[in-house]
Amino acid sequence: MTGWNASDIPDQSGRTAVVTGANSGLGYVSARELARRGARVLLACRSEERGQEAGDRLVAEVPGADVRFVRLDLGELASVREFAAAYPYERLDLLVNNAGVMALPRGRTADGFETQFGVNHLGHFALTGLLLPALLSTPGARVVTLSSMVHALANLDIDDLNSEREYRRWIAYARSKTANLLFTHELSRRLAAAGAGPVSAAAHPGYASTNLQTAGPRMEGRRRAERFAELGNRVFAQSAEAGALPTLYAATAPGVRPDSFVGPSFAMWRGAPAASWRAPWTRDDRAGELLWAASERLTGVTYDALKG
Question: What is the pLDDT, as a whole number, of residue 307?
Fold first, then answer.
């Protein structure tokens, strides 16, 4: 992986990708670079206005890019089902579960789930399951799910997935990112048991400058905290272009193994993509099984194609 950058992305001609949260930040960069290499890319975004603007901006940067905005709200299971039902292609080479929220004040999704767990994990769990037939029918398909180095702050509480007993925004965020890694692990196990071809891998950007850091303070009107986050982005963070490289590596590089976790090479913070440390609880088979069962129950999405 030494020195790997966007110019090393293999040709993506003939491949179809779905990138969630592709209107800004890491998702936009990932979608743009996949399109630059010839992929047909669906920009799956919650806001129609921002999604359309992102598509226009992307085509301006990459003339001739084959991109299309399709609305997807991961905080609303009806929207996830609508997106999957309208998916227009038989094949799906790459699903990038990128969208997410971070350290928000306590809130609920449209279906009543704690917002961070509901959007970051349950929405992507449902989306992947509903798109599974297209993934299974595509040789070489991959699912790349975005986690964070912050996952190390907290393991899941399987008995309190929606933080009913106590809500601490950073712990809730860390648990949602642990859930992303446990999902990657358990999906890899189930694909292997079914003899299915898609690779399930995970990535994280280290500390990358995106709007995630400022969204929570802005929602609460905490201007001082928002300015502090903006300062941190300017002084310490790497760019979104650099932060997207682990995702792009996991999505396109040859030889990526199931259940890989790719992040920046320097202290999980910045630098070229490399194999990343992860907390041991993110490879706990029993925890993965329990989270999977709970996720099926909460979303109503079952991965029947893997049950034989």
Answer: 81
Say if residues 41 and 31 touch (Cβ distance below 8 Å): yes
Helix (H, G, I), strand (E, B) or coil at 267: coil
Q: Give the tokens for residue 159.
A: 């008995």
User: What is the H or E stretch that residue 77 is in?
Assistant: helix 77-85
Strands (E), 102-150: 142-146
Q: For residues 71 and 232, which has the higher predicted lDDT (pLDDT)?
A: 71
Collect all residues with Cβ–Cβ distance below 8 Å to 81 and sequence separation of at least 6: 126, 130
- The residues annotated with a catalytic role in the active site are 173
Predicted structure pTM score: 0.91
Tokens of 130: 């509903």
Half-sphere exposure of residue 65, counting CA atoms within 13 Å on the CB side?
Answer: 24
Q: 169: closest CA among 117, 207, 206?
A: 117
Other beta carbons within 10 angstroms of residue 231's beta carbon come to 10
Q: Which DSSP category does 138 fall into?
A: S
Dihedral (CA of 210, 216, 220, 223) sign? negative
Residue 134, CA atoms < 13 Å, CB-side half-sphere:
22
Between CA 134 and CA 123 the distance in angstroms is: 18
Say if CB 45 and CB 69 are below 8 A apart. yes
Query: At residue 302, what are phi and psi to the nearest 5 degrees?
Result: -115, 140
